[in-house]
């Protein structure tokens, strides 16, 4: 029983990692950059929701929609203002940019008087609700995360696999020059991707808010989502989820059965082991240049 | 488009006036003016580093010219977004293949048709392409990056065909192709030109092929156009014969030692 | 413009390419040696930190800038060096020996990290080093008998076989010595076959291999050298701060180190120094600027990180080659004056190509 | 005039180094505003013996290295500073103190509750906050005894702060002959406490000592309530915070916390606190917190000493005076502070507060942790006895 | 194994998933000859090169080189054994100068000792000067003087091909593998290439194994030619023999020699 409860807890936590990892993978698949500001976008999304509910007095669901839209717009803006000017530079430059964006995002939120430095709660309708199923405690907040993660993953997977735009996004990440030659509007797609990933971040932020609270540093949880994405194979959407679940469950079990310290490093140990055994992750493509 | 009217050889579909492009401080082409008439095949000859690729890249908006202007179908497309230029019906088959290595061959072809919205036409052209290059059909699900060099070249050309453009810029299409396929490629190029009325601007090291297949030719040296004429006449020029067609009087080894360098300046 | 007529291959090999180099670098050295008598103590302390971070930066530069391997866990090596130094110095081991040990232990750890690096690259390597950084931090926390755990440990001042260096000036000169030594070692390495092998690996692994470069060996070597430099830097850091605790070597520190080399200018030794200067002076500049701003902004928490992030963004956007790149442009401008043409440094359109296939 | 750093004819320059942009920016900001409020008040009244107070604030991002640099900057800049007041964080203080002591700069009432703020003794070290260690040492055995509990657990943050609480609580339990049945920790910033709670639940704990700060406190308690695990929770002064109530809501009812200064509730009974809070509110447009009160208090203490020293302010004179100081309890309910040449930690008391009906209620008098001893009572049971022990 | 064979492949077979890229291919390369592989696109020529330079491992079969089993050597040892190659798609160190590229070619000839290098001892300096002299000889041979200090990234395609050849020569190989050396070169440059290959064979005494599509070049320089098709050996012999082999004409050369049929006038 205890074991099952731990696994359930691990799955719930894993879905959180997976959800954030989805955001990483999305950007990576479409632009081949790693967005170290994903956590901050998530934080901004949560603050948007908070603002919509407290300042504008929106009901919860409306606030959710508003926050997602606002963040999508923000993502577009971000792309136009800071990412686009260096489009085409090595991916690493963009990675550095995202560090900068992260700093600025966190700083700006912190600068808001009386709000930025505080921790807030988001009044979600299902707060603190639990289902008791045969002695197992199921947390509604976590169930919401699980459900949303599954749906998002399926939708994004389909987009990348079957839609022309999704394939074009991958194409421009693999060879931008060729994408231009084909008439793919690389810039527009790039905006779209950033908008999309900011929206995904907003969803993650809103789902996480009841679990981790809303505060300027809530984005740091993203540091655990990286290992999740890597374990699954960085370019794979289902991989992000599976990676998240693996890490969540390993964390949960090692937290209970192993001495202190293992829970917090479990994610990192798992990722190192994975990289030794299967360097491209579970679902990662086997990449080899043909000469 | 397959539905295009038969070729009306006449009006210039592409017109470069006084174009100058540079990489940083290095000027690669200067004062280049050329025209390609609708329905024609035009070719640019030139030795290594003459600036042929640079001309094509400037036309398709990959590099912005420092000076001069480029007109396509009467509209000024100087320094436009590459994507916009393609939408107007100008496709560039780049030097060095530039396939999408991690997409399947099929998806690569699909990307070639990105700007099109007529599904039926795309399906039809896909079949045409597969008929031209059956190996691509066999490998439709393989990652394009794993194709052999020549197969990738076929894919690059096919992608351009998939776009059903009005003008194709071809940068060394025969690079790395077997002799048999080189001929076939040129046949295909000529066929596309004849059957679909697609105008073609061709850059090719195989001058013999190029001069035979084209209507009009330009010779480029050190970034400047030094000669232009119909191909029929170019084929007869001594300089062309010697330097581009390899018909030297004496292939003596010693000659190379003091390198008779061609120059028109 | 300066034209140099070369008469000997040695001219290409020498570090100083012409007499101007010799002159200006000698002047710089003189100023640095005289610094304790030129600058106030506060500025000297800053300068000491700059030197320490330059050493670490050299290591980062070797790894990221020249070998093309990015580490997001480099603070771990800094930490290993710092703790090794602290433990040995507190045991009474003389400073030079402890410093060598700090470098060696870090290098050994670097080899261990380098091993997975042989199989993964790009983002995977980044995450592997990130993971490794967290694990080292955790070990420092848990291995209380040696590290003192979270409470941290105090470090005794350096003792060079009986000669105690407990003044700021003495320690500064010590750091200067180590920095100069490390810089020459790296410069020499970079003009030797090993340095070329690193660059080859950065540009194309497949052809490096076909040129007979043993990828595993050189990648590990790069990791080891980089870690050793970080370890030496960490050891000096431990002395300068005289108190170390595990959380000083966390992810934020690692990111700072990465930013340092990026802002300095990846792929140039100068960049390591310029980056270190930037990293240390930036917070000072911000807090100076604070007083000029209205209170609502100047005193607002978070200002520092906004400015920091904004500067970083500005650098990537406007000067991707970092401070060193900017300096090169200024220099060229001056040399060409008055013939400078406007388009000279116009950025070319460039196109991203997948790093996944390299 | 002597060449005392930071003191000039009409100015005393003080420095403080606080986290203004890092993980504890919120506390740092409130503390800074508290300090500044008192400075402004003093300057409006003409300063100290004709000298205006100037407070230089540095942000260290909760990073020891930056803290050292900031300290060096403060002491090296212009005429230097007379004292560092209320510097935040244990590691930051530990790293910076040697640097400033070299320059004979006092470390005055740091905003850190660790033993190293007053130990090992140093003439320039002056602290007023009972350490987390001592708070836990008093609170844990006391609640055990009071409620007749037998099994205690601890959940602590695995850093220097958590270690203080852990060691203190362990020492305290030892006085009543007990040990923790479960010790479990988490990393700073953790959000998932399910395994920790599961561990403590299966150990059957009745008292859980929390070496946690705000969010983790709430996270852990909420998780426990969901799992149907309802022991007594007690934390150090770090959980004594309005935020805990705001975030936690219902589940955190009943939580105990060790504390000294009481939260300045605006509708609080005492008039002086009310008018102080109003002043604060008008100045900063936000409600004061216990951090603001601590900042205000620290500056207030400094001013009192400086007044007492007289017009000839030197470091030596300040230290001499400080060694004789006794500060009566202030309006926030801070205990009496007494200092002596051998006693550099002013406060040796802490008390307990509990969340009742969404408010912190003080539920005990001050308890001294120095005089604590355990005695066998007539039944042979161990009892904690203290000269100060006095339950309400 | 006879001393005349520098390299001999026996029953080489490689399978990539469903594709049988090379199927039971055997051949011998004699010391001091130019041996050419031809064949239609996708015949498996480059794959054979990749097998020799150990980028791929054969599914079956073996390669012997100077009496050693090559397939047991790690990839980085190949250069040290005296085998150098060029790549079909050019794999240069883009962000380095031509000189730098060529110096890397000298890598195998240095016992690099990190400590000595850090102090840049006299012997390191001597070795550096020596490398430079070797490199300069290659630069002279291939007429690369004016590109010596240019960044590779900015060079035209044709020059890069030459630089890659030069880099391979700098490893001072005994066996040189050239993958389509003339692709992207015009007639005149191809002529130069032919002369160079002959120089390399005759003056430097290096054995050349080449993949090439330009039949003029092939006939000019090769001693023997092996034609492949779909991973299998189709024909082997002198250039003349192979060019007249019906299977080769059918699969590779195509039948029409005259290309004037392309002209518009003739349609
Ligand atoms: N990225 C670049 N950076 C700097 N210079 C360049 C760059 N690309 C080309 N050049 C220079 O521009 C000139 C023209 O190059 P271009 O590629 O157009 O020649 P080309 O005629 O296509 O030659 P090839 O036949 O080799 O393909 C060359 O001298 C070359 O050195
Ligand atoms: N790594 C690989 N994975 C899958 N298939 C491969 C791989 N490498 C080569 N192939 C396939 O093996 C076949 C032979 O390829 P190879 O590159 O050897 O051809 P080639 O003879 O060099 O042709 P070309 O003249 O076009 O360069 C091709 O069909 C190619 O698709
Ligand atoms: Mg070209
Ligand atoms: Mg090939």
Automatic annotation (TrEMBL), chain A:
<keyword id="KW-0813">Transport</keyword>
<comment type="similarity">
    <text>Belongs to the binding-protein-dependent transport system permease family. LivHM subfamily.</text>
</comment>
<keyword id="KW-0029">Amino-acid transport</keyword>
<dbReference type="Pfam" id="PF02653">
    <property type="entry name" value="BPD_transp_2"/>
</dbReference>
<keyword id="KW-0472">Membrane</keyword>
<keyword id="KW-1133">Transmembrane helix</keyword>
<feature type="transmembrane region" description="Helical">
    <location>
        <begin position="86"/>
        <end position="105"/>
    </location>
</feature>
<dbReference type="InterPro" id="IPR052157">
    <property type="entry name" value="BCAA_transport_permease"/>
</dbReference>
<protein>
    <submittedName>
        <fullName>Branched-chain amino acid ABC transporter permease</fullName>
    </submittedName>
</protein>
<feature type="transmembrane region" description="Helical">
    <location>
        <begin position="6"/>
        <end position="29"/>
    </location>
</feature>
<feature type="transmembrane region" description="Helical">
    <location>
        <begin position="226"/>
        <end position="250"/>
    </location>
</feature>
<feature type="transmembrane region" description="Helical">
    <location>
        <begin position="136"/>
        <end position="160"/>
    </location>
</feature>
Automatic annotation (TrEMBL), chain B:
<dbReference type="InterPro" id="IPR030660">
    <property type="entry name" value="ABC_branched_ATPase_LivF/BraG"/>
</dbReference>
<dbReference type="InterPro" id="IPR003593">
    <property type="entry name" value="AAA+_ATPase"/>
</dbReference>
<feature type="domain" description="ABC transporter">
    <location>
        <begin position="14"/>
        <end position="247"/>
    </location>
</feature>
<protein>
    <submittedName>
        <fullName>ABC transporter ATP-binding protein</fullName>
    </submittedName>
</protein>
<keyword id="KW-0547">Nucleotide-binding</keyword>
<dbReference type="InterPro" id="IPR027417">
    <property type="entry name" value="P-loop_NTPase"/>
</dbReference>
<dbReference type="InterPro" id="IPR017871">
    <property type="entry name" value="ABC_transporter-like_CS"/>
</dbReference>
<dbReference type="Pfam" id="PF00005">
    <property type="entry name" value="ABC_tran"/>
</dbReference>
<comment type="similarity">
    <text>Belongs to the ABC transporter superfamily.</text>
</comment>
<keyword id="KW-0472">Membrane</keyword>
<keyword id="KW-0813">Transport</keyword>
<dbReference type="InterPro" id="IPR003439">
    <property type="entry name" value="ABC_transporter-like_ATP-bd"/>
</dbReference>
Automatic annotation (TrEMBL), chain C:
<dbReference type="InterPro" id="IPR001851">
    <property type="entry name" value="ABC_transp_permease"/>
</dbReference>
<dbReference type="Pfam" id="PF02653">
    <property type="entry name" value="BPD_transp_2"/>
</dbReference>
<feature type="transmembrane region" description="Helical">
    <location>
        <begin position="258"/>
        <end position="280"/>
    </location>
</feature>
<feature type="transmembrane region" description="Helical">
    <location>
        <begin position="47"/>
        <end position="73"/>
    </location>
</feature>
<keyword id="KW-0812">Transmembrane</keyword>
<feature type="transmembrane region" description="Helical">
    <location>
        <begin position="300"/>
        <end position="318"/>
    </location>
</feature>
<keyword id="KW-0472">Membrane</keyword>
<feature type="transmembrane region" description="Helical">
    <location>
        <begin position="220"/>
        <end position="238"/>
    </location>
</feature>
<feature type="transmembrane region" description="Helical">
    <location>
        <begin position="93"/>
        <end position="115"/>
    </location>
</feature>
<feature type="transmembrane region" description="Helical">
    <location>
        <begin position="122"/>
        <end position="141"/>
    </location>
</feature>
<feature type="transmembrane region" description="Helical">
    <location>
        <begin position="22"/>
        <end position="40"/>
    </location>
</feature>
<keyword id="KW-1003">Cell membrane</keyword>
From TrEMBL, chain E:
<dbReference type="InterPro" id="IPR003593">
    <property type="entry name" value="AAA+_ATPase"/>
</dbReference>
<dbReference type="Pfam" id="PF12399">
    <property type="entry name" value="BCA_ABC_TP_C"/>
</dbReference>
<dbReference type="InterPro" id="IPR051120">
    <property type="entry name" value="ABC_AA/LPS_Transport"/>
</dbReference>
<dbReference type="Pfam" id="PF00005">
    <property type="entry name" value="ABC_tran"/>
</dbReference>
<dbReference type="InterPro" id="IPR027417">
    <property type="entry name" value="P-loop_NTPase"/>
</dbReference>
<keyword id="KW-0813">Transport</keyword>
<feature type="domain" description="ABC transporter">
    <location>
        <begin position="7"/>
        <end position="255"/>
    </location>
</feature>
<dbReference type="InterPro" id="IPR003439">
    <property type="entry name" value="ABC_transporter-like_ATP-bd"/>
</dbReference>
<keyword id="KW-1003">Cell membrane</keyword>
<dbReference type="InterPro" id="IPR032823">
    <property type="entry name" value="BCA_ABC_TP_C"/>
</dbReference>
<keyword id="KW-0547">Nucleotide-binding</keyword>
<protein>
    <submittedName>
        <fullName>ABC transporter ATP-binding protein</fullName>
    </submittedName>
</protein>
């Amino acid at each position: 029983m205890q074991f099952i409860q731990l696994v359930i807890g691990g799955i719930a936590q894993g879905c959180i990692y997976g959800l954030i990892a989805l955001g990483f993978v999305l950007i990576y698949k479409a632009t081949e950059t790693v967005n170290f500001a994903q956590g901050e976008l998530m934080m901004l999304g949560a603050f948007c929701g908070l603002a919509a509910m407290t300042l504008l007095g929106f009901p919860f669901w409306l606030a959710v929609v508003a926050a997602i839209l606002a963040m999508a717009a923000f993502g577009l803006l971000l792309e136009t203002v800071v990412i686009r000017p260096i489009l085409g530079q090595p991916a690493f430059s963009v990675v550095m940019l995202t560090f900068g964006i992260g700093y600025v995002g966190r700083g700006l939120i912190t600068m808001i008087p009386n709000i930025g430095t505080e921790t807030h709660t988001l009044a979600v309708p299902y707060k603190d609700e639990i289902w008791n199923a045969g002695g197992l405690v199921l947390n509604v907040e976590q169930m919401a995360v699980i459900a949303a993660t599954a749906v998002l993953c399926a939708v994004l997977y389909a987009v990348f696999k079957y839609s022309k735009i999704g394939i074009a996004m991958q194409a421009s990440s693999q060879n931008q020059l060729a994408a231009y030659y084909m008439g793919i509007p690389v810039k527009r797609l790039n905006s779209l991707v950033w908008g999309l990933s900011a929206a995904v971040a907003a969803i993650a932020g809103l789902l996480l808010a009841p679990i981790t609270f809303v505060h300027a540093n809530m984005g740091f949880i993203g540091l655990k989502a990286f290992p999740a994405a890597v374990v699954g194979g960085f370019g794979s959407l289902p991989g992000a989820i599976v990676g998240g679940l693996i890490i969540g469950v390993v964390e949960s079990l090692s937290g209970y059965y192993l001495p202190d310290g293992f829970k917090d490093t479990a994610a990192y140990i798992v990722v190192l082991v994975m990289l030794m055994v299967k360097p491209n992750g579970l679902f990662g493509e086997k990449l080899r240049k043909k000469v | 488009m397959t539905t295009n009217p038969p070729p009306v050889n006449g009006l210039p579909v592409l017109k470069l006036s006084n174009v100058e492009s540079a990489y940083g401080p290095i000027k690669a082409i200067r004062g280049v003016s050329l025209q390609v008439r609708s329905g024609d095949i035009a070719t640019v000859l030139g030795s290594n580093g003459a600036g042929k690729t640079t001309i094509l890249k400037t036309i398709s908006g990959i590099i912005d010219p420092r000076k001069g202007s480029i007109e396509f179908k009467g509209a000024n497309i100087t320094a436009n977004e590459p994507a916009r230029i393609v939408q107007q019906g100008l496709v560039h088959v780049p030097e060095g293949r530039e396939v999408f290595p991690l997409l399947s061959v099929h998806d690569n072809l699909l990307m070639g048709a990105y700007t099109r919205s007529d599904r039926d036409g795309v399906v039809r052209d896909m079949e045409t392409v597969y008929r031209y290059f059956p190996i691509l059909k066999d490998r439709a699900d393989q990652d394009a990056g794993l194709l052999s060099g020549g197969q990738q070249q076929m894919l690059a050309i096919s992608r351009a065909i998939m776009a059903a453009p009005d003008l194709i810029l071809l940068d060394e299409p025969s690079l790395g192709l077997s002799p048999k396929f080189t001929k076939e490629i040129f046949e295909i190029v000529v066929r596309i030109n004849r059957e679909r009325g697609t105008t073609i601007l061709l850059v090719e090291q195989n001058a013999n092929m190029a001069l035979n297949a084209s209507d009009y030719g330009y010779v480029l040296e050190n970034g400047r156009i030094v000669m232009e004429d119909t191909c029929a006449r170019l084929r007869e020029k001594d300089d062309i014969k010697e330097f581009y067609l390899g018909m030297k009087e004496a292939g003596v080894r010693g000659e190379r030692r003091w390198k008779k360098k061609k120059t028109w300046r | 413009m300066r034209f140099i007529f070369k008469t000997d291959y040695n001219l290409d090999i020498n570090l100083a390419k012409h007499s101007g180099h010799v002159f200006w670098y000698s002047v710089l050295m003189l100023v640095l040696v005289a610094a304790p008598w030129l600058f106030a103590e506060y500025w000297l302390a800053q300068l000491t930190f700059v030197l320490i971070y330059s050493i670490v930066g050299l290591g980062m530069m070797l790894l990221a800038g020249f070998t093309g391997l990015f580490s997001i866990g480099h603070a771990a090596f800094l930490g290993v060096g710092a703790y090794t130094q602290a433990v040995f110095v507190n045991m009474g081991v003389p400073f030079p020996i402890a410093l060598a040990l700090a470098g060696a232990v870090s290098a050994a750890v670097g080899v261990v990290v380098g091993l997975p690096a042989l199989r993964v690259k790009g983002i995977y390597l980044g995450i592997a080093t990130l993971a490794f950084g967290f694990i080292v931090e955790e070990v420092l926390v848990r291995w209380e008998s040696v590290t003192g755990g979270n409470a941290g440990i105090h470090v005794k001042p350096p003792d060079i076989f009986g000669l105690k260096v407990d003044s700021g000036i003495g320690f500064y000169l010590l750091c200067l010595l180590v920095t100069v030594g490390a810089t020459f070692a790296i410069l020499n390495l970079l003009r030797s076959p090993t340095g070329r092998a690193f660059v080859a690996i950065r540009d194309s692994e497949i052809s490096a291999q076909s040129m007979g470069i043993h990828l595993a060996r050189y990648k590990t070597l790069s990791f080891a050298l980089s870690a050793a430099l970080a370890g030496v830097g960490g050891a000096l850091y431990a002395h300068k701060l005289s108190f170390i605790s595990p959380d000083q070597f966390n992810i934020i520190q690692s990111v700072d180190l990465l930013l340092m080399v990026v802002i300095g200018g990846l792929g140039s030794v100068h960049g390591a120094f310029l980056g270190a200067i930037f990293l240390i002076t930036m917070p000072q500049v911000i807090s100076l600027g604070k007083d000029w701003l209205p209170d609502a902004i100047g005193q607002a928490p978070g200002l520092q990180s906004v400015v920091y992030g904004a500067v970083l963004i500005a650098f990537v956007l406007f000067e991707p080659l970092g401070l060193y790149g900017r300096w090169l442009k200024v220099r060229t401008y001056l040399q060409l004056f008055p013939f400078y043409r406007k388009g000279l440094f116009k950025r070319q359109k460039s196109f991203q190509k997948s790093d996944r296939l390299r | 005039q002597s060449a005392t750093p930071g003191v000039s004819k009409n100015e005393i320059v003080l420095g403080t180094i606080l986290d203004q942009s890092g993980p504890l920016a919120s506390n740092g900001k409130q503390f800074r505003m508290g300090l500044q409020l008192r400075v402004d008040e003093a300057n409006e009244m003409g300063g100290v013996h004709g000298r205006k107070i100037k407070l230089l604030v540095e942000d260290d991002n909760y990073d020891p290295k930056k803290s050292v640099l900031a300290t060096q900057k403060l002491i090296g800049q212009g005429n230097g500073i007379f004292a560092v007041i209320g510097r935040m964080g244990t590691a930051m203080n530990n790293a910076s103190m040697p640097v400033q002591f070299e320059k004979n700069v006092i470390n005055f009432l740091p905003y850190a509750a660790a033993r190293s703020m007053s130990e090992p003794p140093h003439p320039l070290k002056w602290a007023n906050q009972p350490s987390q260690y001592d708070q836990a040492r008093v609170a844990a055995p006391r609640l055990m005894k009071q409620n007749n509990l037998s099994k205690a657990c601890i959940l602590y943050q695995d850093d220097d702060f958590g270690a203080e609480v852990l060691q203190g609580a362990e020492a305290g339990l030892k006085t009543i002959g007990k040990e923790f049945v479960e010790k479990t920790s988490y990393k700073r910033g953790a959000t998932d406490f399910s395994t920790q709670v599961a561990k403590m639940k299966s150990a059957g704990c009745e008292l859980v000592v929390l070496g946690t700060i705000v969010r983790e406190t709430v996270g852990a308690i909420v998780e426990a309530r969901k799992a149907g695990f309802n022991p007594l929770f007690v934390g150090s002064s770090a959980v004594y915070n309005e935020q805990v109530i705001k975030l936690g809501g219902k589940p955190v009812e009943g939580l105990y916390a060790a504390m000294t200064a009481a939260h300045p509730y605006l509708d609080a009974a005492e008039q002086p606190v009310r008018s102080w809070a109003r002043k604060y509110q008008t100045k900063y447009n936000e409600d004061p917190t216990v951090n603001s009160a601590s900042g205000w208090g620290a500056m207030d203490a400094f001013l009192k000493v400086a007044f007492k020293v007289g017009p000839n302010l030197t470091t030596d004179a300040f230290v001499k005076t400080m060694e004789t100081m006794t500060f009566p309890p202030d309006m926030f309910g801070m205990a009496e502070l007494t200092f002596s040449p051998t006693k550099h930690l002013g406060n040796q008391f802490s008390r307990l507060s509990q969340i009742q009906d969404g408010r912190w209620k003080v539920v005990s008098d001050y308890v001294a942790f120095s005089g604590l001893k355990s005695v066998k009572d007539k039944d042979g049971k161990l009892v904690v006895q203290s000269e100060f022990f006095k339950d309400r | 194994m006879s001393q005349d064979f520098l390299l001999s492949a026996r029953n080489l077979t490689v399978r990539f998933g469903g594709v049988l890229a090379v199927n039971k291919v055997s051949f011998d390369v004699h010391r001091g000859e130019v041996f050419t592989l031809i064949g239609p696109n996708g015949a498996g020529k480059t794959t054979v090169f990749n097998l020799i330079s150990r980028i791929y491992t054969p599914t079956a079969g073996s390669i012997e080189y100077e009496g050693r089993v090559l397939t047991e050597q790690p990839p980085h040892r190949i250069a040290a054994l005296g085998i150098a190659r060029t790549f079909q798609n050019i794999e240069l160190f883009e962000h380095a100068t031509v000189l730098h590229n060529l110096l890397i070619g000298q890598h195998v000839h240095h016992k690099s000792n990190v400590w000595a290098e850090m102090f840049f001892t006299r012997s390191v300096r001597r070795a550096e000067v020596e490398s430079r002299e070797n490199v300069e000889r290659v630069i002279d041979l291939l007429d690369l003087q004016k590109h010596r200090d240019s960044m590779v990234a900015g060079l035209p395609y044709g020059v890069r091909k030459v630089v890659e050849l030069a880099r391979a020569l700098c490893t001072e190989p005994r066996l040189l593998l050239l993958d389509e050396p003339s692709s992207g070169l015009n007639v005149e440059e191809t002529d130069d290439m032919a002369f160079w290959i002959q120089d390399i064979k005759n003056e430097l005494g290096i054995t050349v194994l080449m993949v090439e599509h330009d039949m003029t070049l092939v006939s000019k320089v090769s001693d023997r030619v092996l034609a492949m098709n779909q991973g299998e050996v189709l024909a082997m012999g002198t250039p003349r023999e192979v060019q007249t082999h019906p299977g080769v004409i059918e699969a590779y050369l195509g039948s029409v020699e005259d290309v004037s049929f392309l002209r518009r006038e003739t349609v």
